[in-house]
Specification:
By secondary structure, the chain is an all-beta fold. The chain has no helices and 11 strands. Helix content is 0%, strand content 39%.
């Protein structure tokens, strides 16, 4: 017996098998403590992760400030990460705080473009999922 992990971009669609986690009788429990996720098992090894499971995600945003269809100004590449925190009153439910990027240095414009770089620098097999990007504009 072993614990395994599966992914899907929608809970209502089929899941894809991604691999086993260790070997032996796992009887696993997942907990969140001291800012990390822990997979506690009955094996010799337990597993700890900070999350997210892809180590480096970078984002930059560009603005077309002259209305010619070309990006004139780019933000610097910025590392973004989700954050996790406890939900008060729950023992095993964790709040996921979306990654954000500061674009206050960009000028007003007529169009925007964003680029994302994902670099898996971990030893585990990661399958990143980018399920949504939200650009919010203030006036």
């Amino acid at each position: 017996m072993s614990a395994a992990w599966f992914t899907s971009d929608d809970i209502n669609k089929p899941f894809t098998f991604c691999g086993n986690i260790g070997q032996g009788h796992p009887d696993p429990d997942i907990i969140f403590a001291e800012g990390k996720f822990h997979l506690v098992t009955q094996m010799d090894t337990d597993y700890v992760s900070d999350g997210p499971w892809v180590e480096t995600v970078e984002v930059r945003v560009g603005v077309d400030s002259t209305n010619d269809g070309t990006i004139d100004h780019w933000s610097d590449w910025q590392v973004v990460k989700e954050q996790y925190d406890y939900i008060e009153g729950f023992a095993k439910q964790i709040e996921r705080i979306s990654a954000t990027v500061d674009l206050s240095g960009l000028p007003e414009g007529y169009g925007v473009q964003f680029e994302v770089r994902v670099m898996d620098t971990t030893e585990n097999e990661s399958i990143p999922i980018l399920d949504k990007v939200v650009l919010a504009f203030d006036r």
